[in-house]
Amino acid sequence: MRLFNSLLFTALFLLAGTVSAQDETDSQKREPGHYNTNRFKQLYEEFSTPNMFRTASGAPGPSYYQQQADYVMDIELDDKNKKLSGFETITYSNNSPDPLEFLWVQLDQNKRAKDSKSPLIEPSDALPGDMAENFVKNYMGNPFDGGFNILEVKDAKGNPLKYTINQTMMRIDMPKVLKPGEKFVFSIKWWYNINDHVVDRARSGYETFEDGNRGYVIAQFYPRMAVYNDVEGWQNSQFWGRDEFALPFGNFEVNITVPADHILDATGELQNRKDIFTKEMMARYEAAKKSFDKPVVIVTQAEAEAASKGFSTAKRTWKFKAENVRDYAFATSRKYIWDMMAVKMGSGSVMAVSLYPPESNPLWEDWSTRAVASTLKTYSRMTFDYPYPKAISVSAKNQGMEYPMICWNHGRPNKDGTISDRTKYGMISVIIHEVGHNYFPMIVNSDERQWTWMDEGLNTFTQYVAEQDFGEQYPEAIAPNKKYPSRRGPAKNIVDYMAGDQSQLAPIMTKGLNTYNFGANAYAKPATALNILRETIMGRELFDFAFKTYANRWMFKHPTPEDFFRTMEDASAVDLDWYWREWFYTTDYVDIGVKEVKKFYVTSKINAEARQMMDANGIKESDLPPLVYFVKEDSEDFEESMRDVKIEDVKTLKEYIADNIPAEERANLKNPRFFYEIIFEKPGGIPMPIIVQLTYSDGSSERITYPAEIWRKNDESVGKFFGSEKEIIKIEVDPDEETADIDTSNNTWPKRKKLGAFDKFKNKTNPD
Hints:
protease, disordered N terminus, seven-stranded mixed β-sheet, Peptidase_M1_dom, aminopeptidase
């Protein structure tokens, strides 16, 4: 009966508030209704309907399919004339349920054709001046002709095939429709002039060293099949230069002919190693396969410097095979030093490899291959065991680009041999990032042409984890820093970007070509969003399991953003629709603070507010059971004596405990003396957990995290009322900067005093 009466009294209080609000509404003009704009609504409107190809859980469906493209290629590098030529045979397997009338092939080198339209889509402004180098390039030089020269396209019988080139895409018109389950074999003969990638900042090309030798990093060098799938059909969006590549998996047999004095490595396993390697190189290679703690040099610096003095006119062919890869690339030069070490992987091992000129030492011999090895360990822990036989890091000026098993990376000492921290950490980080791309998107094969963040964002997040692991594994590399100084990942590092004007920016869920502030929005922001999920929203255990589930479900397949979003929820039992919407579909920001704090004391004496509500509803005090009343400090009912009131002094409460709580249980009851109502505000749009640090008068502290769902019914402010045995002297929201809160001026109670100009100057000049 007591419980019933207590509930009745509470209901009357609520009823009084409702009636009052209704009276106020009736006296005003009624507002129209609206669509569901709640930030916690489900993503049904944004997501496509699950089907036989992709399930609602985020896993591939029972009818999931993907095409396959197998290549046999003969490639020759003309070092003297800086020219690359090739003949390739493509076997295309139609594993889809659709009959195909034609095939689309990517001609990425046409981005550098004389008549390329890529420069025409970028606006330009008048400047007060320009560097002489840029002036010559932009206004005095002739366009570089680096596009494909297609010499022939033929079917398996040698008959010419009709084809149409549209900028960076080539349509192959087959003699008849390619039915489901059928294969089509055709060949392409081509050549192009190799570009200087240092000048045009391209992903592929050559650089010229001071002694006249060149280092070649060659990619996007062959006509490549486009993706055909259940989401886009043909992904034949033009390559304008920024958004990268969508490619099917296949097997490659590649013969690469280069000058006989070159050192070369590439995607795949070298098939004629004994013909290429000297006996000494073979002995070193065998030692490297057993060295798990340090790299073994295969080609020494002295040998590379000796080779650099010649210019062989003889040729040598390196033969490679690669299985189940989506692309192919290689690097070659007579200046390369070559080292390797083994990395334990599952029940076997893989090779971590580096190629670099003498100009890269001593930095590269110390850290490149170690960074490759450390990266493979971290990424495999976070996803799956690295499935390929090797991962190669190649030193290339101004580069940072990835391909299956091989990548190009910047970072070299100054000419006097000195190495700045910026150079060292920049090199290690770019190696971790580019090697990490083996996982995203080389294996978890998302569509880079459509969703840049799915490879760059996921990879940058995992890069942050790998950087921290590297710092722990090699503390001597980061001394005197205690932690690796990661540029992206921690929430606080994205605040400046999120605090900027977002009105002209686009959400993360934007096609790569159209992404504003590319580095922040395609790399840093999604990486930070995932790091916050891991550290603050989900916790590492749930996040890591779900992230690994996604990677394993979609390794060697083509996932979409929805497959990622759905899998993360499916494997964790955490509803994240609100999080995906706010972080990935909007340009909103986080700003949560303390709006107001009210202190209350308890008494058995009825207060004016309660009396007013009872009178309004015709209730007498005698109609209600004994109650405990809360009196706000500084209200008209507040009396100074209430500060010293103890729980046992409140008559109604004392009687209730005596009548209802057994004596042996009373010792376990808390003894709250202070009662607080904290009103939290949310000027920012993104709902986030409210992480609150309470500091008490005795110097102790307590942390409470209210889940983000606390904002589900009020998007602007929420209150929490609670009792405390100790007096609170400070309240701080997000004390460790976990949520990317852009404005911390409202995060503390009592409010921080704003310093005047003199105070700021005094603190700056007298920091102690």
